[in-house]
Sequence to fold (208 residues):
Amino acid sequence: MSSDMTRRVFLGTVGATALAASTGQAVAADADRPKPGSLKILGIACSPRPGKTTAAALTVALEAAKAAGTNVETELVELGGLNIPVFDPAAPGSADFDKVAAKLTDPKVTGILVGTPVYFGSMSSLCKAFLDRFIALRQDNFALANKVAGVVAVGGMRNGGQELTIQTVQAALLAQEMILVGDGRPTAHRGATLWNQGDDISKDEIGL
Fold:
């Protein structure tokens, strides 16, 4: 799919199924575009520790998205254990990043959640290395433009730098011309801020 997956197209998929049911007419779509009403959301866990609280937070978010409708497909991708080194313009290649990038740029993917632990008021070094490599996606005709993006940050305290971390990740995503969202009205938070209490987020009712 080219980078013309616009906000209108994305929002149109949400109502396409209802429209087809009410009119009895089939909704036509290009073969490389999502089927009408079909949404796929990726959760990218940027923690060096697979299966821990960042993954748990994203899992909660993805399950909530999936519960919103039978047309929603989700997938969690964990970067922990992958070889995604610091970006070097002189040696830009990374086989593991390329595998993840293929998932991100899949035409079926209309939403991406980026989750990161908070280290000293900012994202993890793995998250930074991952986002820096998005330069290749910018050069590929802004391959992520107009995909919807959200951010989840997990910190060791209730107010442990999560919001600043979310803003920093959002700045990188804005450079890709992505559509950034939070939790919507009436609160309109920038993203989800989770509190890790002994490798456990289940007690954080506010964050969840």
